[in-house]
Amino acid sequence: MLAHPVAEPLPSGVSTGRIRAEILIVLGLSLGASAVYSLVQILDLLTRSTPLSNQTAQLNTSLDSRELFDFVYQVLENGFDIVPVALVAYLLWKTARPHLGRLGVDFSNVGRDALWGAGLALAIGIPGLALYFAGRAIGITVDVVPTNLAAHWWTVPVLLFSALRSGVTEEVIVVAYLFARLKDLKWGVWPILLSAALLRGTYHLYQGFGAFIGNAVMGIVFGWLYMRFGRILPLVIAHFFMDAAVFVGYPWAAAAFPQFFGATH
Question: Are 237 and 113 in contact (CB under 8 A)?
Answer without folding.
Answer: yes
